[in-house]
């Protein structure tokens, strides 16, 4: 049989293989098919042109065949080789297929791109038993031709229920009741889908659904019934328009228009749609962008308070905030700002916060002080500054002690009007990144309260700009993945005071107490002096701090919450500035004084304070209490409970916490009668023992070559090993006499602390 006859024979076989039932049901894959000669190559192209997708040089084609078909192709005498068209991917790892994902630098900056892109899109009604006209069956999103039906849920938690109808002839009403017939929620409108928010503080065994369509000519069919347990974010803005990149998570039918008062929150500006997209654009749908909370179960409640020009009044904004609380929102986003404080808006925001709803607000874009910018400056609001792609704060981002954190705000691409996408800049864009983090924390830990969330944001933020808190970036740039990995804990947080802030002591301050600490005892110390002890009877405590004079222009403000056994449940500590003058140049410590340099360094390291008259009193003897207080400033001993270990060290004694911590660390043990004798002067020998214990040098006997102190040569002396250890580390000067029974002076201890500090740095 000649070559042409053979080729014809195979062509007939392949015709039946490719077109008959033999290949039915098999998926087609891409294959690379090679040929020896141009004649073979051209013959294949002529015969199987419908399967060839592309051609290349060196007699190779790319074609699509099923796995069975390719076996027959390999047998063709004109084919020299067959290979799969193996697929390669970018070396950069990403699980998102959204086209503009690589332009979303903000996601990478806040760590959102590392979170798995798996939105909880599950319809919780799927697979549940539904009862329609006394007939029970499993619901699999099939159409339901009934005006009432029930779902059996067996203790399920729900946040929202939605019905989608096959057609709309006008207004219709959706009502949801529980198993006892109590109304849970209702909504009315003329859109194909209606949504209702359900009470989230309960579980549901049964829900009944009733549809009312008075006057419709045709009985509607429920195309889909869906229920979810999502976090609801109220976006109080210009409204939110329908967009291709939202995946059923924008609750249009529940939206409100406070500008025109005509129902749904239709966006005429684009700003609110942009903000909503930053939070909740659908991930992995092959369209547009990825929302910062795109991997979390989040719904958007659009509330329109700003007109087409982006302007609105406090009255309407307050109405929207109050409605968000009443409707059951879990987070409120304010990407808006302006001058002027009103009682109506302040009360609305306070009500939201006291109901456990975090409020996130933009700092504003005037490059000015936040002192008169609202809602950002209301107490308890999480205020957001904006940064650029290089990590610097935008020059027009407002600044002040009100700033809490910062987030990306320059050239942020997001959803816009008419199914488009647009890049915008400002603190308005930074705010929804923070709102996304809050929403994701609420989704992961629904029990979190406002104070816990504030603490988690600040403690996990990436410090930028000045070290520590600063008035431009706050505690730093948010880190979503890091916050989600943190373990929730009870928290205390000052709602107005920031670290390093100068205070007006005549102004009451607000201390935030997380829910788990309500009913517990709260203690407040200012510069080691107890100024308040009370039982926390609410989540906000108003405190007027006394202006205690000291030798510094800053004071340590410490708050501790404890249970009835004295076990510490939460702490907060920060430095506050005062108007007092401050200088390390003590009038009684001239530059010629032997410990001048050490005293200067000790003051700079905040180990010593001096007195309010500008003196240090270097030759004054030191009490045991003050010695322990100064040591604790160097060692920062942990404290786990505040039960007094000594009868003569009550909790209200200045420095009591340092003594308790030193006792826990076994640095001090007290006397045989159970006392500490806090005002007793400390000897040089006693100091050596305490310091050696603090440095962990007394855990083993001294084994080196002892220095021959003439007045401390007896190894049996209680301070012998401690003195030798300290001398060996050059913390104690090696002189002929140690003078163990002399009282320690303030200058001597300052020098010892600096040498101990240097030793710890080695």
TrEMBL record:
Keywords: Hydrolase, Protease, Serine protease. The active site is at 237 (charge relay system), 271 (charge relay system), 428 (charge relay system). Residues 582-640, 642-705, 706-762 form the SLH domain. It comes from the Bacteria. Belongs to the peptidase S8 family. The keyword Protease applies. Coiled coil: none annotated. Transmembrane segments: none annotated. This is S8 family serine peptidase. The keyword Protease applies.
